[in-house]
Design a protein that fits this description.
The chain is α+β, with helices and mostly antiparallel strands and 163 residues long. The chain contains five helices and nine strands.
Length: 163
């Protein structure tokens, strides 16, 4: 079986992120007429607000990249389409449990005190899967497509539950 698959998932910005973006653009628009009245001082503030909008955009434009290569899964968080942060890199066989969120076998892990890491788009209509690692005490929530899940099941058939 060819064990190579790459998938990119764009996260939907939440209401807090959208509010920050709108607030920045509002401050920029309100301060524009004062450039002619206050001169260089307001121009410095105006460029500072513009830089702040740029930083907000980079921090709120989030994508997740899932790379599966011969039994190894790597999840990378991409900020602003250029800043990469590795979240997970491990062998699929090391996961203790892999299932969809509505699977009854996941209930035993809900009572344990595991750290939950959301690596998905945030859209509720998409199909999420939980990847449980008891060694790290973490549950990773990702939304792979069906092809990626079949490849994962091939490398970890005992602990993978597809619904």
């Amino acid at each position: 079986m060819d064990g190579v698959k790459e998938q990119l998932v764009s996260a939907k910005p939440g209401s807090k992120e959208n509010l920050l973006r709108m607030l920045g653009w509002f401050l920029l628009a309100v301060s524009l007429p004062f450039i002619f009245l206050l001169g260089i001082y307001i121009l410095i503030v105006w460029f500072g607000i513009g830089y702040l909008i740029y930083i907000i955009y980079i921090r709120t434009n989030v994508e997740y990249e899932y790379v599966f290569l011969d039994g190894s899964l790597t999840i990378t968080k991409i900020l602003g389409q250029n800043i990469r942060k590795k979240i997970l890199s491990c062998e699929v066989k090391d996961f203790d449990h892999i299932s969809s969120l509505n699977n009854h076998t996941l209930q035993s892990y809900e009572q344990k005190n595991f750290t939950q890491v959301d690596c998905g788009s945030g859209r509720e209509e998409n199909h999420y899967y939980a990847f449980v690692s008891e060694a790290d005490k973490k549950i990773y929530f990702i939304e792979p497509d069906q092809d990626l899940m079949e490849k994962i099941k091939y490398y970890n058939p005992r602990n993978t539950y597809l619904d």
